[in-house]
Amino acid sequence: MNAIPAHLDHLVLATPDLAASVAEFARRTGVTPAPGGAHPGHGTRNHLVGLGGRAYLEIVGPDPEQPTPAGERPFGVDQLPGPCVLTWAISPPDLDGTIAAARARGYDPGPAHPMSRRTPDGELLRWRLTGGEPAHPSGLVPFLIDWGDSRHPAESGLPVTPLIAVSATVPGPEEVRGPLAALGTGLDLAEGPVALRFTVDTPRGPVTFD
Question: What is the 3 state secondary structure string of the chain?
């Protein structure tokens, strides 16, 4: 198994306290995440770190400058007891084709729906992504994303901590391997409590987050 999953787009570190998690990442790595932007209507915002190539880390949490949304914030950030590497995303060359192929192989990643956010310099980014009920409850099966004509976040001059490896544990690894294969990607899996972790190279040496 490759240490880095095929078509990796980004890893999601979700947190109930965005400012504290950004500060902790900077303390541990010596690299300060860059402000990403707000998700209007969803009550969240993010900070980003490049992982090398066309991949990045998203640290996402509640946005105190937005009103409380009517529904639950993305990734259930309000219910988290602390920061957690919650899930990940892939960006296959053909989003709709990958969805159709996965369904034909027995896994439905759900339909793609549009989202957007503005960067700190005012640029509007638009993308489509899958998510919702069809996703595996462990968070270890990635959602899919297509950035369309928007500039990819990893191409916006982010600070970089090169990704060394991604791995996970789950009580039933085979339940996850099937959907991963249907999506054309993979993940280093072992049996154990549900956990997703990654290791990055930093000015302070390799650092692992989970």
Answer: CCCCCCCEEEEEEECCCHHHHHHHHHHHHCCCCEEEEEECCCCEEEEEEECCCCCEEEEEEECCCCCCCCCCCHHHHHHCCCCEEEEEEECCCCHHHHHHHHHHCCCCCCCCEEEEEECCCCCEEEEEECCCCCCCCCCCCCEEEECCCCCCHHHCCCCECCEEEEEEEECCHHHHHHHHHHHCCCCEEEECCCEEEEEECCCCCCEEEC
